[in-house]
Amino acid sequence: MSINTGLIDTTEFDDDGAVVRVTAHKIHEHESTRLIEEFKAFLASSGKSRIVMDYTEVEFVSSAGLGAMITTSRVAVEGGGKIVLTGINENVMQVMKLTKLDRLLKIEKTLAKAQKVVLK
């Protein structure tokens, strides 16, 4: 089953797993608020708890966008789930390293590796 809600496109890959692709190219304050809302709605409706957030299409993330990354991860974990990020481009990764978010959030370079890790 695949769901496209606007800023996210989701695809199931296991009984309990889903890939949530962020389709925005830039995540500013407006997009970050919508991203969090759409992510929460997806979790509530899908029942999935092992999530891979794919940021391949994202070229830029503002501080609000970084906050959205933290919030979506927190929401997944607080709901008893697990989340792994993938598809982080070099520019976004540099910002994540400067803010030490690369230490807080689980990040894998490839989608296949992220799916494998999230299912462990």
Descriptive overview:
The protein is of the alpha/beta class and about 120 residues long. Helices cover about 45% and strands about 25% of the residues. It contains five helices and seven strands; from the N terminus they run ββββαββαβααα. It has helices at about 30-45, 65-80, 90-100, 100-105, 110-120; strands spanning about 1-5, 10, 15-20, 25, 50-55, 60, 80-85. The strands form two sheets. The chain has a five-stranded mixed beta sheet with strand order 1-2-3-5-7, sandwiched between helices. A two-stranded parallel ribbon has the order 4-6. The two termini are about 20 Å apart. The model has no long low-confidence stretch (mean pLDDT about 95).
Keywords:
120 residues; alpha/beta; five-stranded mixed sheet; 5 helices; globular
Detail the topology: elements first, then pairings:
Layout: E1 2-4, E2 8-12, E3 17-22, E4 26-27, H1 29-46, E5 50-54, E6 60-61, H2 63-78, E7 82-86, H3 90-98, H4 101-104, H5 111-119
Parallel strand pairs: 3-5, 4-6, 5-7
Antiparallel strand pairs: 1-2, 2-3
Helix pairs in contact: 1-2
**What is the element string, with H for helices and E for strands?**
EEEEHEEHEHHH
Count the beta strands: 7
Q: Count of helical segments?
A: 5
Low-confidence stretches: none
Structural class: alpha/beta
The major beta sheet can be summarized as: 5 strands, mixed
Radius of gyration: 13 Å
**General shape:** globular
Précis, in short:
47% of the residues lie in helices and 23% in strands.
